[in-house]
Amino acid sequence: MRSSGTPKRILVAGAAGFGGAITCALVHRHPGLELAAATARSDAGARLDEVYPHHRVPVVLEELDLDRHADGIDAAVVAYPHGASAPVVAGLRERGVPVVDFSADFRLRDLQTYERWYVPHVAPQLLEEAVYGLPELYRDELRGAGLIANPGCFPTAALLALAPVARAGLVADVVIDAKTGVSGAGRGASWRTHFSRVDENVDAYGIDGHRHLPEIQQELGVLGATAPVTFIPHLLPLDQGELVSCYVTTSRPVTQADVDELFATAYDAEPFVEVVATSPGVRDVRDTNYARLTARADERTGKVLVFCAIDNVYKGAASQAVQNLNLALGLPETAGLR
Ligand SMILES: NC(=O)C1=CN([C@@H]2O[C@H](COP(=O)(O)OP(=O)(O)OC[C@H]3O[C@@H](n4cnc5c(N)ncnc54)[C@H](OP(=O)(O)O)[C@@H]3O)[C@@H](O)[C@H]2O)C=CC1
Ligand SMILES: CC(=O)N[C@@H](CCC(=O)OP(=O)(O)O)C(=O)O
Hints:
Elements (H helix, E strand, L loop, with lengths): L7 E6 L4 H11 L4 E7 L8 H4 L14 H5 L4 E4 L6 H10 L4 E3 L9 H7 L13 E2 L2 H8 L4 E3 L3 H15 L3 E10 L14 H4 L4 E2 L7 H11 L6 E7 L6 E9 L5 H12 L5 E3 L15 E7 L6 E7 L7 H11 L10
Parallel strand pairs: 1-2, 1-3, 3-4, 4-6, 5-6, 7-9, 11-12
Antiparallel strand pairs: 7-10, 8-9, 10-13, 12-13
The structure holds NADPH dihydro-nicotinamide-adenine-dinucleotide phosphate and ligand 2.
Organism: Paraconexibacter algicola
GO molecular function, one term: NADP+ binding
Enzyme class: oxidoreductase
């Protein structure tokens, strides 16, 4: 770690992926950070602005060499898929490097739950030190953290929508109806995300259980809500953007004034959560670190309805990682993000 006045040097591993590339762009333009190196496999040797011209980051992608790349850096972002991330994160932690991990490898505190939904864990010894990287819930723990598990995109939106009502002990049952663009699936093409299948189409997926369900349940549990959760994502013909519509059956009657007070108390001081009166849309938050939400007490049904829009690759991944880096490295939380 170097002196506090100089820019903090950041390694981005997995820089040729959607999330990694945006992280490089955010770090490149950040007043307090410097892109020390960006690594990739298939695109190694190419410049990032050849792979993604619109990000305009003229850095040459290199093959990851942990000994070389971990030397002289202040932190790393690992933007790999789950399973591939854990060994690299472990290697960086062994070398004393603070890490923000994009994958699910360190999000679930219970090893058995992780292995039930994902793959056998190769670095379970690090689970205990990992901090769940949702700054609105874990700000104090994120300051100076060594390992940050950046949340999934759906859990980010759903937890921001539900935290005020969960904390108030109001959740008796909740349905989370989520919509996402295809960039959430990463840069690898598949039939599921093929233009010819997605264009002019909408469908639900993960209806027998999506891997973000245990993550949402874990964090709602920390907030005191252990009620049944139904979570169903839908794929839309969008590139970036995510909207979660949450239908909460409440444990006691609530008025709109109650709901307004809960959300104002939770978010009035939050730099990246906008509580608005009108229905938020994904365009309202595109390419930003903002979560934009509205909450209603529905007098006809007695439910609380909360709608939250984020950009899945920004607040759902890359810009949230930078918010977390800012906290971990002692920089202003909003630096490089507005
Ligand atoms: N896209 C999104 O909206 C969100 C993504 N995430 C998470 O962020 C991570 C990255 O996602 P995203 O950027 O979308 O994914 P991409 O598929 O676009 O990028 C992942 C990158 O990881 C690299 N990679 C894949 N497997 C390995 C491996 N075994 N070893 C080393 N590198 C590997 C690939 O590198 P190469 O191209 O060089 O082969 C690829 O560029 C994932 O964990 C994802 O779940 C989280 C929230 C939202
Ligand atoms: C469209 C699409 O496939 N979206 C992804 C979102 C993944 C994500 O963003 O989160 P993780 O970091 O947990 O992978 C999905 O539903 O799995």
